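Revision sheet: structure tokens.
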Amino acid sequence: MKQFKDYNNIFCDSKEALEWLYKNGLSKDALVRTSSPSLLFDKGHYNINHVERRWSVGDFQLFQTSINDFVKDIYTATYCVDGVSREQSLAVSIAALVFHIKLYKAACLTELDLVEPRLIVRVDGVGGPNGNNMNSPWESLLSVNKNIKTITYRLKSNKWSILTTQGLSWISRYRIAGIGTAIFRLSVKMWRYIPNFFIKKEVIILFENELVIETAASLALKGVALKYAESLPENNINNVDLLITPILSAIRPIVQRRLSNWITPGLIKTCEKILYNDILEKTREVRHWRSRFDPYFNKVNKCNKKVVVLSNTLLNNKGIAVAECCRENKIPIISTQHGVTYEICSTHDEMSVIHEINLSNKLIVYNDEAKTYAENSGFNNSNAYVVGISSRHRHTKLKDIIKHHHAPPIVFVSTNLYRGNLNLFSTWNTDFDRAKEECALVELVFSKLPYAVRYKIYPEENRRYADRDPVLDLVDLHKNIELYDTKIDMRYLISQHRVCVTTKATSTLSWLVMSGKPVVFINSKKDMPLTLDANKYFSKGLFLFDDDDDGFYENIKEFLSQPIEIIEKQWEKKGKDRALMIKRFFSSFPSGAGRRAADMIYSDYLK
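Predicted:
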């Protein structure tokens, strides 16, 4: 078969699919344009071209740091349209934010891509809970090109797993979850069987997280009923698109300016159309959820009882719909901080529009730094209340009854989650750059240590690429590095190790810090770096290494090569500085977050 012999320029992100193409006539000289780290690491065998090579660090930085201002302009213009609610304005703005994932890829194309023959290779396979997101949007971006051909290859290597607690003992799980989780689960079950006319105070749970569970458990002990939000089958909605035309007219000049700065002129109309379709799809999805929750919250509002909605992040289609229902029915919403990130990460502003505070009457946060950031996000309509970090974070400090003598003393907790076609940015690195930096740590640091090291993968649930991460192939080559690729959350494993190493300013760091174990933090200056203020405190409270320092790899290798006892003693000497760091950036109170949050909710909304 020679069906692909006429194509010399293709888009492909799968090594398996590419091998199949070669067997079916594709020339080995054909230019293969890809974002796949696996293909790019193996390019010696193919004519591989990094499709994202146009993104220098400077360009990427300018692109990423300008997203928030663009989204704010979209929000302001949308909110000024008659009849558009705050929730609808946020939905449009979030669609504009997420569109940048496609705009980033569009910026990799040239005018020639719009007219010359191109082969687009898609893959079909298991992608995780959110479905198959392994394919870049080349087909829609190049829709004006009459000389494109799209084929779909079904993956044979199609194994994929998601986050699990399988294999963990109930003791290990209970050690982290604590009695509060048991109280929460039992209370929710109990209140299912109690008639509504007995209920005078009720908390409706929309989305859970550690602090939601802990707060709800404390409210249950005060006699408050706990129930999950209920949705009904979708009702027919008429005229859902009436406001779209004035919205698009209002934002068009803002959109066109943004597009003209980043993509070739021939793509502007196509990208406009893609964004407007994304906005239409998102507003329709919000209306879909609105129709399902309206009857429920209307009924709740008519009951003779005090009600509060308690939820984790709200800035998804379902949460936006519920927030609109609650506002119209005068039902307060309390949201909780999702994790320690925005108060320590200097490149997190692009995501201000999806901050928890934007749709709630009150946001419960861990620390004063988080409160300040939230209240200055630019989209908020309320304030934050500081209660401290969740008890689950603190439980990582408890010893595990089960002994783990086989576990390596040092664990590298990887936060290397590729963007693919799913993630937003907070970085000035391509996925290929991320893979190269991760490989450098493995090769130049961990493989050189006189100890066994565990490489703990990030528990990625939604698949970014079809092929195996090349970093893992490198890890397999080194006898002193144990690959831990079971997708179990790190919180359950911390007690097995003596020293934890991680990188990037993510919420993973909070679990490690609160465990009390020595933490070596690698501050990646191009990928979710620390704020200057956090850097100052972390350099005193943790073992911090900036990855742009001269001799970085040698310095961290020498540090980790010390006897573990020496590292632990040095860690103890940082105790006072670490306490100051924790109070400012992790938890303003030593304990009692759920109780403190429950007292506030009860006093302000349920008394």
